[in-house]
Structure formats: C-alpha cells, structure tokens
Inverse folding.
C-alpha cells in the first residue's frame, strides 16, 4: 500500500502565515417584486433583463470582514416591470497575515467571487418562485471589475486581464 505524503505541519504561532477562512455565508437581504402578475404571464414578447451589481466590505473585528455582494435583476417589457429581484449575499471572512497593501484586492476580488455562486442560485430560485423561468447569471470576472475600478479611480483605462 502506498503512503500518502502529508504537508509539514504549520506552526500555529506563525504570525506571518497567510490565512483565509470562510466563517459563514448567508443571505443578508432578499427582495422580490412581481408587480405585473398575473397579467405579465400572458405576455409573449421576451423581457429586457438588466443586472446590477454592488459590493461592500466592512471590518467587524480584527482580521474579520463581512463582505456583501448585492445583485439586482430587473425584467421589463416596454415600460412595464415584470419582476425585480434583489439579493444581498454576505459572508464573514477571516483574513490574517495579508500585508495591508495587498488586503484590498483580496477583499474586492476573492470574497465576492466566493459569494457569487450562492447569490446566483438565490436569484434563479427567486425568479422561479415568482412564476418565471429561472434567471441564470453569467459568470463575473471580479478581478477585471476591480482592475477597471482602479483604472477609473486613477483616471486611466484598465488593462485587459490576461487570458491563460
């Protein structure tokens, strides 16, 4: 029988080791509006679907952060709103050993990327429960969004992300 190699044990007292932990993931807020029902179920033309995204992070304790990814999906036909779903997916993350100058990218890219599959499922479920086909959001490149935001803050266009 072959032996499995195990990585060397890390010293629990090593303060320089980078540690990233997911303490909890939860729905912070969920809103569903279905103002056109039941007449909206009779419409034959496909709706225009708009997706909005916001993120925010707050430090809640030393080395502990709450990150919230809010997605808003609005479906309209002409000037009539068929439905509006807004879901705020949150997570509590423990982040230790990350230098201060590298903390913001971790918070702005990695935390929302972890939350995205959960909010995607919440949005799909809510639209189904409203009586419509599920809305499956396309993947989001949070690294590119972060680079774009940095470029806007610095007054320059963001560089295109490298594709490997």
């Amino acid at each position: 029988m072959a032996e499995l190699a195990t990585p060397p044990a890390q010293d629990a007292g090593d303060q320089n080791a980078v540690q990233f932990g997911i303490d909890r993931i939860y729905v912070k807020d969920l809103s569903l509006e279905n103002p056109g029902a039941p007449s909206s179920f009779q419409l034959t033309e496909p709706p225009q679907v708009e997706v909005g995204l916001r993120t925010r992070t707050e430090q809640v304790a030393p080395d502990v952060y709450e990150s919230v990814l809010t997605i808003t999906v609005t479906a309209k036909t002409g000037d009539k709103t068929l439905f509006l779903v807004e879901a705020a997916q949150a997570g509590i993350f423990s982040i230790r050993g990350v230098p201060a100058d590298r903390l913001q990218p971790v918070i702005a890219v990695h935390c929302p990327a972890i939350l995205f599959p959960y909010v995607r499922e919440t949005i799909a479920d809510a639209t189904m429960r409203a009586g419509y086909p599920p809305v499956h959001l396309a993947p989001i490149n949070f690294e590119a969004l972060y680079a774009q935001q940095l470029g806007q803050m610095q007054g320059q266009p963001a560089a295109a992300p490298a594709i490997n």
Q: What stands out?
A: The radius of gyration is 20 Å. The first strand starts at residue 19 and ends at 33.
